[in-house]
Here is the input.
Amino acid sequence: MNRILVTGAAGFIGHAFTKRLLEVGVDVLGIDNLNDYYDVELKKARLADIQGFETFEFEELNLADREGMEQVFKSWKPKAVVNLAAQAGVRYSIDHPHAYVDSNVQGFLNVLEGCRHNNVKHLIFASSSSVYGANTTVPFAVSHNVDHPISLYAATKKANELMAHSYSHLYRLPCTGLRFFTVYGPWGRPDMAYFKFTKKIYAGEPIDIYNDGDMQRDFTYIDDIVQSMLGLMDHIPQPSDAWDPQKPDPSYSNAPYRLYNIGNNNPEPLMDLIKFLEEETGIEAKKNFMPMQPGDVYATYADTDALVKDIGFKPSTSLKDGIHRFMEWYKMFYDVEAEQKKAVAE
Here is the structure.
């Protein structure tokens, strides 16, 4: 498919995936509302990194803008849509619930309607490992029940999965949902722990470590996320003859619908992340140990068997290697050496 609409193109995953598509000659229309949930200048820098490609167009637009979204679909006629735009963040959803419904529910409905009315051949959409919520059976499998979210963010992502299935069933729209597990790497999100920790370590400020550091995450490097998505782009879902309405499996259907975990299949301790950051910066972090926060889970752990079976790819970048690559980018992008010299001079 050589004409693709990517929502959230100025976001972390959106930028990385769009850049890979452009590198192989795909025509991409990126849309993003450039909101100020985190540093807008970083979003603009991501866009600047890809705007030199001749096959890239960009439009600043909010998914919740119904008329604007209708116009984009009608004028651009994408063959496939990759919906990565969303209001992200578990903790932020506790204090700003309306932002999540506007973007993740109303906005996603506009995406679905655009696909329905414009003969889109495949919709890939971002879900989240957060949907596993109160489930403690690990590794988390796409066949597990996820009816007990513990944050509104997770609830909106579960809603996306249900909404997509309904459109897949009613209109035979092929839909693929991706449950991302703790994505990190260059050009990442400043609200994520590894990014915030890095900034504070360099600033000599204490880092907040929840649940006294006793947490595990299935950290997944951005390049592995992109490679998984590329493999799934042309793996268009088909109705499954194996689906049993008496014992329904939520990961597939008698409609053209599939769900996948995109994770490293390897949960690692939060304290290991901090250790790798300390090694890369050469600075021992000042640690402020705190209790578990509302909406957080103790551990995430992705069962990736379905992904490996269908596209033959399994994310495998180690956290140590991934953090090294992130730090190389961070030091260059924020000119850390110059900032340190400036601080010494002052």
In short: The mean pLDDT is 94.
